[in-house]
Amino acid sequence: MKQYRFINNITGWLVFAIAAFTYLMTIEPTASLWDCGEFIASSYKLEIGHPPGSQVFMILARFFTLFAGGNETRVAAMVNAMSALASAFTILFLFWTITHLARKILIKDENQFNVTRIAAIMCAGVVGSLAYTFSDSFWFSAVEGEVYATSSLFTAAVFWAVLKWEDNADSKHADKWIILIAYLMGLSIGVHLLNLLALPAIGLVYYFKKFDFSWKGFLVSIAVSFLILALLIWGIIPGLVKISSRFDLFFVNTLKLPHNSGMLVHFIIMAVLFVIAVRMTLNSENKIRNTVFALGALFLTGIWVVGSGFLNILVLIALAAFLWYVAGKNRILLNTVLTAVMVILIGYSSTAIILIRASANPPLNENNPRDPFSLLYYINREQYGDRPLFYGPYYNAPVLDYKDGKPVYVLEDNKKYVITHREL
User: Which residues contact 398 (CB under 8 A, 6 or more apart)?
Assistant: First the structure.
């Protein structure tokens, strides 16, 4: 087994080197078409690009621009080089994913390791990963300053991590891989939401490891995976900012404090509740106390704010019932859920850079998301409007009428929020 691991690691890094050399030798020397120029410019000066923002990509790309040595003609190449390296690491994780799955097929116990089987596993990994390395679409994204290369890296790393969990699922500390996955998911929100689509696959890996197969269990695992995905996309991501905006409205308009002060208080209270809830679910068997603090912490994440008032209440009741049940049946599961949500929020906290840089009013400052209300507008991509794919007018239909949209809060003179129908 040790020999296999050594060969697997060495071969993986050799494949990485091939991919990295290929991509670095073929990177775009300047900006490509479409969004690449915007991403490069916004990364170089930490400016605000188009909604919903790509702050983690922006921070990483800013680091790579430092290697330009102050030569602005090399900035684009450095950002493109970051995409090349991210894509090469994607190939590395893909290789290890393929060899893991091939080992599961060919080797049932450690006594079956031999030169022939190890060679077959390595060949499967090399052929599969290099085929993807030289595929047209992936190679194209690997050499330009776009978010998709970094997003692919997060997806590959997350799926590799769930396979590592699957390999150690029966060990005492296996859940550390689940926490790592949650953190990477939180970070990936600051690159592109595509990474979250790995959740159904992760759910299936968990199901096949923990349960015997049945069609009912299979369908339930898919449903639960999509439920978690929905709670992230329509719950936590916009809901956290919605809760913050209500705090900020009260602190600014009622208490006359500076804008964003309510958001800061919201985050502090939420962080304290999470720390208490995580500690209690480890050390206390008090079902009521564990449920109350867990519900309080999750309430402030906005995970229940998914739509209309009635639906929100329904989700909140279901959440409370779930926490009450788990607090009595499996405290370790409750602790793992709370810790996972907490590290997702830590990763998602990268969104703070959008507020910070927008407040500095850089030259490129799309939508000016300097407060929770404008940040919510920014995250929800409300500037794009609707795109009726199955209903509505044809693409070039003339305008017949228009009306004001829903009223929104806008910060006026940095002193108070006022209701308006105009654009943010």
Answer: none
